[in-house]
Specification:
This protein has two domains: 207 residues, 3-Layer(aba) Sandwich (Rossmann fold); 118 residues, OB fold (Dihydrolipoamide Acetyltransferase, E2P), CATH 2.40.50.1070. Helices cover 33% and strands 31% of the residues. The strands form three sheets. The chain has an eight-stranded mixed β-sheet, with helices on both faces. The longest helix is centred in the N-terminal third of the chain and has 19 residues.
Length: 365
């Protein structure tokens, strides 16, 4: 087996997925023994974003990645089969242009790709030098020739050629949802599995009612489809860029029953408990009839204050990129809530990484 980054091994995929299912089942056995919904990934071309170092050796340059155990030795990456077909189509074309144009090549340090299922692409070129008008003209020619959006970055510089975003279209249960995805903002890396995550979340929410609180809403990936299942939604997010994207995406999808609040989950939890703070008062929480909270936290999971916040809801819908912190949070909630459903989402085939979903409901009495 080659150890070159980004390779795929379809013959091994089912066995690896079975291992992940068994690991998740064993880990959560103390808190859940029911069925686990499993959502597999395509076995190739599933990753919609990627970044590579650009390594220069004499007159030749190439895309490179590094083994953490040998961080000084670049591994050439001529193609990237786990990456989207768009990434793989663009890689050789971009490298050919870099070799042909010294303005594009000189002190180019890194290349980042952001692509969509509809073949849109945003490419960011990162440099260790100041970018000038000569570079900008070369970049414009490159963007036009390849049909891409392009950004040049260097210290204290960000030059946008075209747009600084792509628009993704995800289809869930036959319904299309559109999302503006901005450079350097968080997006789900595996778009086809993301569609399945949305499908599962909607399925869990269908029997529920009332209003929804969402924490860590990002650019509204879950907010928008879930808004159809609830009367009103209050969604919070700390990143300014993500809040702006989320508000744009609400309009893009014609959603009118969602309020986006710029606030961290931790600050919101404190404000919820104390009722203090300008923003908390602006949200007029007493106008909502909350029944459900949806969370998609970072790898660290929910902090203690947020655990106590979600405990106050009848239903907790939880998407996790780290099953270990998900388990810890569930164990902290066991006195009041029980797990009714779990799912495994294989966002990252050929890796140990697992993403999980859980629906928790308040215990009787």
């Amino acid at each position: 087996m080659s150890d070159r980054p980004g390779q795929v091994y379809p013959a091994q995929y089912e066995a690896q997925l079975t291992d992940k299912i068994n690991q998740l089942r064993m880990a959560f056995e103390p808190v859940y023994t029911g069925a686990i919904d499993v959502y597999a990934s395509p076995d190739a071309h599933f990753r919609m974003r990627a970044e590579f170092r650009v390594w220069h050796e004499g007159e030749r340059s190439y895309f490179a990645m590094f083994d953490p155990e040998n961080p000084r030795d670049p591994i050439e990456v001529p193609d990237f089969p786990i990456g989207s077909e768009t990434i793989n189509r663009l890689m050789p074309l971009l490298m050919e242009a870099i070799h042909q144009d010294s303005e594009l090549r000189y002190r180019l340090f890194q290349v980042e790709f952001l692509t969509t299922l509809s073949d849109e692409a945003l490419v960011t070129l990162v440099y260790h030098r100041k970018l000038d008008e000569t570079w900008e003209q070369s970049a414009r020619d490159l963007a036009e020739n390849l049909g891409i959006e392009l950004i040049g970055r260097s210290r204290k510089q960000r030059i946008v050629i075209g747009r600084d975003y792509v628009t993704e279209c995800l289809v869930v249960n036959g319904q299309k949802f559109r999302y503006r995805q901005i450079e350097n903002s968080f997006t789900q890396p595996n778009a086809q599995v993301c569609e399945k995550m949305l499908e599962w979340a909607i399925q869990q929410a269908e029997p529920l009612s009332g209003d929804l609180l969402e924490l860590y809403c990002g650019l509204g990936t879950f907010t928008i489809p879930l808004s159809y299942q609830f009367d009103r939604v209050l969604a919070t997010e700390i990143s300014k860029t993500s809040v702006r994207a989320a508000e744009h995406n609400l309009g893009l999808n014609g959603i009118e029953n969602v309020v986006i609040g710029r606030m961290s989950a931790e600050d919101f939890s404190v404000g919820w408990r104390t009722g203090e703070g300008r923003r908390i008062k602006e949200y007029q929480l007493d106008r909502y009839q909350f029944s459900t909270v949806f969370v998609d936290p970072p790898r660290s999971g929910l902090d203690d204050d947020t655990v106590e916040l979600v405990r106050e809801f009848d239903h907790i819908l939880y998407i996790s990129c780290n099953p270990e912190t998900l388990l810890a949070n569930i164990q902290a909630l066991q006195s009041t809530h029980e797990v009714k459903r779990m799912a495994l989402f294989d966002q990252f085939p050929y890796s140990h990484h697992r993403e999980a979903g859980a629906l928790l409901t308040r215990r009787p009495g």
